[in-house]
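Input for the complex:
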Amino acid sequence: MVAIEDYGEFETAWCPGCGNHSILKAVKQALTGLDLKPHESIFVSGIGQAAKSPHYLKTNVFNGLHGRALAAATGIRLANPGANIIVQSGDGCNYGEGGNHFLAAIRRNVNVTLLAHDNQIYGLTKGQASPTTTQGHATKAQPRGNPSNPFNPVAVAVAMKANFVARGFSGMIDHLADLIKQAARHPGFSLVDIMQPCVSFNKVNTFAWYKERCYEPEAHDPHDWSQAMNLAVQWGEKIPVGVIFKGDRPTFEDQLPHPTGDLLYHNKVNRGKLKEIMNSYA
Amino acid sequence: MRKELNILIGGEAGQGLVTVGELLTKALVRSGYSVHVTQSYMSRIRGGHNTFCVRTATGDVHGPDKGIDILVALNQETIEIHQDDVLKDGLILKDKEISLDKQGLVDIPFKDIAPSTLFENVVGLGFLSAIIGLAQEMPEGCIKSVFGAKKPEVVQKNLDVLSKAYDNASQLGLEEFKLDKPENKPGLMMTANDAIVLGAMSAGANFCSYYPMTPSTGIPMSLNAKGAAMGIVVEQAEDEIAAINMAVAASYAGATAMTATSGGGFALMCEGVSLAGMTETPIVIVVGQRPGPATGLPTRTEQADLNLVLYSGHGEFPRAIFAPSGPEQAFDLTRKAFDLAERSQGPVFILTDQYMADSYRRVDPLDIDASQETAKPLDSCPDPQSYERYAITENGVSPRLVPTLGEYLVVADSDEHYPDGHITEDLKVRVKMMDKRLKKEDILRSEIAVPEYWGPETPEDLVVCWGSTLGPALEAMQKHKKGTMGVLHFSQVWPLEKEHFQDKLLSASRVVFVESNAGGQLARLITSLVKPAESAFILRYDGLPMDARYILDRL
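Predicted:
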């Protein structure tokens, strides 16, 4: 049996009260709940406060470049069909700099789980608007109010029939841990968009703001795409949390011409075959 | 009888001129002749003026040449553009509907022989092969192997057309264009891109992510077509940024990874190059150069991305850059690139160009069995609990393990990190890590593919060139009247050790840098290490490949 302690305790670089602390707890709970040993997972992240999360876990880590975590995770998945791959990064990283990779990952349906820490603000660079910042929200960089319409990752993922789409809240740790567990178990691309407060730079979408609005819809069938779409666009006085959509598109890896089921590392050069290929140039 | 022929086939894109050219080249190579193909095409799929030029010889042939022995005109425009390049004793083959009043013309009754326009290119192939004296079974065999995958009746129809063309051509009584017996054995016909693919596969490459861009697309395309059966994963990424990040991360996860692109695509990849440098992840990057800046001349050739590749990526980290002269060297250096990338745990580049990517050559069978295996990550760890991905070692190389294979943890980071891979802002650790990473350049410096020299002991004019310009430089040397010219070729352009070339540079009366760019990019690197007494430049940047006459005219 795997215990929470197996994942270690680290000093973090996060502000007291930051939603990241709770998300880290939920991740540890999910990993132990899945009975995964530390070396069986690979955590992939980009840049930002959220992207530091994997450093506070005993696990394999590829902490790459800003916005590129999903591209990196795709490469890792193609090289390693068996690992539990979790991508962890913020709204700026995944939906801004990495927007193209987000769309491509859903289209490909690579079997990875994306935990998007969504605090609707840039924390590491001290408070500029992010792709999910509400229109009109005034920030240091957008003092007259953010002029852009916010990106709705959950609605986009449902619209594109991502295999698993959920919305969580850092203030609901057990609920979030359960979502992460379900997402990791579900084959194909899984998104858990996690609402979290930024105590330093987002004075609008606070812990209390989210707490007031989050609710678990009753009798929602995540296999019903139209219902899912309705929930995905619900945002304002009430914000639904939980599993929004579940799909069953075949995974990208299963559609490769030669799914090996083994690490590419074990692939040996077939000299006989290679000679045949060379002779085809005669 | 001829020892050498320069055959230019011209027409619109979509007329099948590449098929004729490739079949003819294959037939020549299978017969034992040397070939050198220069393809010129426009950035469009149909129409425009394209050429496929085959220079063939009974002995070796080094580069392209001006002056056409046989011009095959598939349209009127070809005649208009190229008729003045046809030599006095040359020949023009054209459709009888194409009008021109000139000596040395042969009308090919394309329409009379071909059952439909689809077969007109085989008519051209038949006439051409017959006139230069290839036994009919040579083009026949090529048709069978190239069209073999199609229906048998398609192959038979083509063979019938070929046979009719041979009969027609034999009635012309043209004897003076027949080639002498070849000096070599039958060989393989391939481009440098093909050789890179074979070199990569023989080095164990099993992952390639890319975004399509001329002239490198052929590499992932044929890795995909030919390598799938060997379990090689090829992924068309959403952009070049994704392509390099995927490849670096796949390498972290144990794959032997590469990517291929051109200057514009590589500009986007630079951030990922830096990632490979910081995370100490092996990756081989092929950059097929074409003229810039920006989109430049997308289908032409140049050697102007050396600086981009040399200085790509922010921060400082070691790298090696190879610049093969043709297919044979491309094969060997690709194998070496993979080995060196793994042993130095970082990025290694192969710089080619459009000219070389599209230029078919005759090649002797390659050493596919290559006795020496290329390096791979470790498969086990004596003490998993204390494993550190970036452990400080004497030569700077830390043990590289594959995540999830054992109970150790592999932590890789783009941020500055401790030996265990976790991030730090400890500035003393920073210095230690920088020193460790930079130390790996010693490995690269000890493995340099040294520049090769041809020519007299102390040349008057020492031509210094790199990559694809070797062939034209060697031919210029052979044609040089006084015989006082020498050629020094760099197949590796970084790192450089002056001990490898300073004697040659200092003993020559004059050093002439020959490069397909406007800035003399290699010259600047070389002269920063060794200053020759007198130097000159022959630079070409009109999008066309370097050739011997271009060099001799300016020497």
